[in-house]
Design goal:
This protein is mainly β.
Length: 1417
Amino acid sequence: MAAERRARRLLSTSSFWLCCLLLLERRASGAAAARSGSPPQSPGSSIRTFTPFYFLVEPVDTLSIRGSSGILNCSAYSEPSPKIEWKKDGTFLNLVSDDRRQLLPDGSLFISNVVHSKHNKPDEGYYQCVATVESLGTIVSRTAKLTVAGLPRFSSQPEPSSVYVGNSAILNCEVNADLVPFVRWEHNRQPLLLDDRLNKLPSGTLVISNATEGDGGLYRCIVESGGPPKYSDEVELKVLPDPDVTSNLVFLKQPSSLVRVIGQSAVLPCVASGLPTPTIRWMKNEEALDTESSERLVLLAGGSLEISDVTEDDAGTYFCIADNGNETIEAQAELTVQAQPEFLKQPTNIYAHESMDIVFECEVTGKPTPTVKWVKNGDMVIPSDYFKIVKEHNLQVLGLVKSDEGFYQCIAENDVGNAQAGAQLIILEHDVAIPTLPPTSLTSATTDHLAPATTGPLPSAPRDVVASLVSTRFIKLTWRTPASDPHGDNVTYSVFYTKEGIARERVENTSRPGEMQVTIQNLMPATVYIFRVMAQNKHGSGESSAPLRVETQPEVQLPGPAPNIRAYATSPTSITVTWETPLSGNGEIQNYKLYYMEKGTDKEQDVDVSSHSHTINGLKKYTEYSFRVVAYNKHGPGVSTQDVAVRTFSDVPSAAPQNLSLEVRNSKSIVIHWQPPPLATQNGQITGYKVRYRKASRKSDVTETLVTGTQLSQLIEGLDRGTEYNFRVAALTINGTGPATDWLSAETFESDLDETRVPEVPSSLHVRPLVTSIVVSWTPPENQNIVVRGYAIGYGIGSPHAQTIKVDYKQRYYTIENLDPSSHYVITLKAFNNVGEGIPLYESAVTRPHTDTSEVDLFVINAPYTPVPDPTPMMPPVGVQASILSHDTIRITWADNSLPKHQKITDSRYYTVRWKTNIPANTKYKNANATTLSYLVTGLKPNTLYEFSVMVTKGRRSSTWSMTAHGTTFELVPTSPPKDVTVVSKEGKPRTIIVNWQPPSEANGKITGYIIYYSTDVNAEIHDWVIEPVVGNRLTHQIQELTLDTPYYFKIQARNSKGMGPMSEAVQFRTPKASGSAGKGSRLPDLGSDYKPPMSGSNSPHGSPTSPLDSNMLLVIIVSVGVITIVVVVIIAVFCTRRTTSHQKKKRAACKSVNGSHKYKGNSKDVKPPDLWIHHERLELKPIDKSPDPNPIMTDTPIPRNSQDITPVDNSMDSNIHQRRNSYRGHESEDSMSTLAGRRGMRPKMMMPFDSQPPQQSVRNTPSTDTMPASSSQTCCTDHQDPEGATSSSYLASSQEEDSGQSLPTAHVRPSHPLKSFAVPAIPPPGPPTYDPALPSTPLLSQQALNHHIHSVKTASIGTLGRSRPPMPVVVPSAPEVQETTRMLEDSESSYEPDELTKEMAHLEGLMKDLNAITTA
């Protein structure tokens, strides 16, 4: 025994030391793993570590010179070394067979010889470096732009000038922006050294300040960009002595607005000249700038301001102020500072298991706001059901699969630049635990059960998995514990599910151990899903249950589509649509909504219809429209019908043909040319044109010619010689003839031109040789009696027969291109007609050598379209006017003083119209020629200011440009969607989100509002999305009462005065999850301050009703309050009835006197509209209780609907109504709450729910005299008053149409009688007693009359003699019948007699006393 005990003791001791050794070894291995950066590993498993893979150097924007070499740097780090490739403009470069571009050992791209020409730019573009490691992944660098400096061209050159000693001068030399660094100046052919007095601006302009005599001389600027240098004109600067006299202060160079990036330098030029010499100072935002003590602000030569290392704080408005003691002038410019994208939060590496949901976070900043896109292994991530952009920029991946592993990069980009940041995703096997605590990038659905597993038995599959509740959008699963663990207290479960046919699986975990049910939300109706459940214990995940196939319910509670929808045109502007009741209405159909839209546009309109047909009026002529119908029941909108398309009938054109012109062929014929009317005004297929002409001297003799088909010209023959004719053209459709053009005149020749022989030799030929071209100009033959059809130009080296070019007979110049420098060319010019070519005229020229860089004259820059100038130019056109016709068309008209007074063109002159947008930075003109005194400019941008000018050309002579005319095109619907749509959650209110956006880039007018569409289904039809209107130009909006933990999709449409623009792309946002469950002992989730509890217990989350005790207590309280209220009302009614009985006769007499005994003067035109609000300072519309019905009836149009529903009021009242409407709409847009159930498919309209229990009395408007001040108002009361009605009635200024069986409160106003409400007589003003007509009211009916409306009582405050009175009831009598009103208006020519007026005043005084007695009692 003793030996056995010693053996056991020895064995236990050895076991203890063995365990200690194992523990020390494990700690040592864990420490080593920590030092190496890899996480500790579970026994029996291997965990891959994140691989460092990133760029050491990324390419940057580069400016290169043609013919030189260029390099784009790139270097990446990884183990093993990555493979480097390059993309240009999104396409991989094949560098193996490229002899100019090669890959350097470090990964940089080297271009040995940059190629760049006008038509071949193979090297310019956007480059991106791509690094790949096999079996690991791919990353891409930022994008860099390679710009090649263009050919040197001067946009402005120096001009000869003079400057007084001590003053400033500037010499312009502006070139392409990318060539500015290569510009330098020479003074007397010697390089000019810049100093504090001499400075070169960023544009290339030279500034000379404090001029001295040594500054005089010859100046020129040189551009050296790799090739031969380019020289500007050499000009002389004269320095004049100080004249000792004053001169006006003027700016030689003013500052212009700039846009700079943080870190760059900004130069605001400002140079002034005058005597005495001015001083320059600067201000920013009304604050003086101290340029002497600042290190970043420097005052350059002449007074220009340089700001180095620009920051965001430098943005603002800068003022340059020049002062010489005698006067002060100032100029201003805006400095805008932009910032490249920067990462506030970069994506982090993530470990995950398959079927998990993860989120890569990415937060960026920049100005303008950067856009973010995601790249996986170098390929763009396209958002889908499983790859979603959440919280503006984060990437959410749902239901991970093994192929999702790799490198993900967040790429931020704005106008300034771009940046990238990346992270790695590693998907572990299910038996390998995630080594660290759950990172923040894992969603709450996948962060459970990540503790390291230990060795032990795993649970078996859960038993009896069933779908206990199947709905349209969710499924509730329940199951029993695994057979291996019947208690299951420490077992958790994961539910894996996927759509049938989709390989990507998602997972939902139970919330606590032992829970054996889970609800899967956000499913699609009528869709099959596959579910399986897996149990986990402390040792790991067990077996999976057998797959369960479940199909969600279809949404059948809504109406089906309306069958047999048909649409047919009834006129050129109207279409009638008919349909039938849906076969599956799922309850009573409440109304229908008819949607219609012009084909080719995105602007869909709608109208509510209660019947099965409707006619849409006011449509465009001969335009195709599509129609569809949606039925509504108490649950909301049903399924839409299929679209049906129909075109309105055609009509006669509503506009005349365009650009009518005349060409005189000979003494007996004239050719007419025209263009069709604008497309929107053709109103059908143009079947032909009607040409009418007459002699100018005999206006009654009109000849008509019909041109069929689409022919746009007509030859009119058989005319008289030397006779002036007027012509006009009208377009035809099958419906008739449209409006004709204005008369246009032309005169036939006195004698026909001769074409029996060839033309004579041209009278002159001039050539101007350049380096690679020759400008040829000529004049026609002196004998103008021979027909000239055109000119033939021959040219070649040593011989004119190498090349031949033929030009039109009107042309007087031509530029021969693509010639060799320093070559001798022979040029010949011949006029030709149908007989043949005439005698040639010869000229020779030697093109200039390459080294000759003298620039051509400005008149040949736009050759061959600009005439050669003449020493004696013609007079420019005058009276240029721009008439705006549409959003893209402006008609230009002018007069020509060189023509006779009747402005008839009888020679071969023509006019050139040029135009451009009125933007200082835009110097590019467009040109067109015209042979008449007007031109129709088309293809313009909407809502854009253009400037126009005209010049005239006749032969070799041409005028200068006329004075400019300006015109702004009309607005058009926005043609681009709102930009930068973002959705964020409101802090503290998870059910409220804030949508932000930016205006569309092509607004085409002033934005008047936006419409926000949102839905939980991005693929739903747009009419099934919920709508939120936003009034005005606000760029943010709140949407409340959203469902927690639900993905929503948002689109935005912009609206201007012309209609709706296109929708933005859908932006996805998932609302936050609830902070806790509403179970026992837990707080309710935050539902927002505006949350309203459900109206019955059946709406509780679990379907449990309200407890019986709470229901009984609530019933007792309601009954008690009702009984007490009724008793109080009865007591007050009895008391008031007794007090008022003694005064009834007097009141009836007063009423009779006021309403029945007066004479009226004037006619119906003098009757002012009704004042529906009396005593605005005291009377207000009662607040309208919301209908208990969950789907209140909504009005479709603003209130009132039209002029026949409610009579217009006077100006003050109109403004009051306008204010009320605006305030209501503003309130709606600010605080309106939206849910999918209640507002699906609605259009943005003003909504006013009606009380489900209408009041017992209705309101009728009655006539009265002019509105009186409150202090002099009197009211006529009736015998029968209902105190209860007086307190319960409410006034609704609404035009909702209802069936006669429903007693909804309505303001009944007869549309043909603009009468006033409330019969209140007016106290006559001083002078002759003249009154506006006041019509008597009908006798008040008793409440027992069942077929008539009962009069309601309103409360008004009546002041008498300056004393305040408590409110008293005011009766609103009924309006008279039409026959009575007509009779009274016919009898309205009389006037009041003095005795009658005295009696009326006596009645009023008596009534005043009675009212005082009542109100003071």
